[in-house]
Amino acid sequence: MRIFSYCSIGLAVLFMTLIGLLMAQQAAPQAPAISPDSYAGEKNFVIGVQPPFVWFPEKPKVRVPEGYTPIFNGENLTGWHASATNHHGVTPEFRVVHGAIVGTQSPFGDGGILLTDKSYRNFDLYMEVKPDYGCDSGIFFRCTEAGHCYQITMDYLPGGSMGNLITENINGTTAADRSALLAMREKLMAQAPAAPKRAATPVVGGIPLGMTTPQGEAPWMKVWKREAWNSVRLRVEGDIPHVTVWINDQVVTDVQEKTNRAEGGIVSGPIAIQIHGGNRWVQAGFWRWRNIGIKELP
Fold first, then answer.
1. What is the percent of the chain where pLDDT is above 70?
2. Domains along the chain?
3. Stretch 69-94: mean pLDDT, rounded?
């Protein structure tokens, strides 16, 4: 009987101990679930609010209007080359950054041109451009290797213009063209509103510093967007060329030439983009071109 009593007491103690352990486990707080993000120090992105981070985002795509063929692939300068004989300079810096051609003087003061390897006769050219404030460029066509050509001005400086037709260093017409260009610049400068005498606000291309809207009567001043991407179209038709220029879908130039003033009377040639030499540039300034496409015409 005594042994039975001892066993009963022992079983009772063991049973009470087990009950106590079970109750203690239920009362203990649950350990937090381990989150990989907490170790990585990363945020949980909310769908529709933040895109997930990726190391290799999709490359910018070349987008030209329907019917146009890209002549810049968005990745490198295949199909283009710099002139080794242009009077603005022979070492311009042209490179491709994030789907755009980016150009600047190199060294400072020396410009140059970038030409297509292919020649074009009649065509409709489309591109998007974004220059830094105060940098002078141009679109050349029916161009020689040295850059003697017709030019569409992209002259974003006092007295300059965007989208006008002139010639560039063509033998036999340079003096007349320069006189006409100077007269045009004087006219544009006269159209620009005079700054108050007490203010020293520079006016570049009809746009006072610190403003974004051109103030003048020239057609391009009504449509150009400063410090933003602008679309430019150039259409050239005929051996004696009829030239039309659009900026942001608005016609700014529509000219029928009376004679063919191209160098040597050529009716086809490369297309080129320019970095002006000399002081028609700002320090650390760049021009940008993207989505360049062409439609060849009969």
1. 68
2. 69-296 (2.60.120.560)
3. 97
pLDDT at 153 over 80: yes
Q: Which residue has the tokens 């999709």?
A: 58
- Please say whether the beta carbons of 232 and 129 come within 8 A: yes
* Spatial distance between the Cα atoms of 296 and 124, rounded to a whole number of angstroms: 6
Distance between the two ends of the chain, CA-based, in angstroms?
122
- CA–CA gap between residue 126 and residue 138 (Å, rounded): 14
pLDDT tens-digit map of 17-29 = 666 655 655 555 5
Contact 81, 143 (CB under 8 A): no
Q: Choose between 3 and 136: higher pLDDT.
A: 136
Q: Are strands 230-237 and 123-129 parallel, antiparallel or unpaired?
A: antiparallel
Does the bond joining 219 to the residue before it have cis omega, within 30 degrees of 0?
A: no
CA gap 148, 155 in Å, rounded: 17
How far is it, in rounded angstroms, from Cα 191 to Cα 221? 11
100 membership: H or E segment, kind and range: strand 100-104
> What's the token pair of residue 220?
């391009």
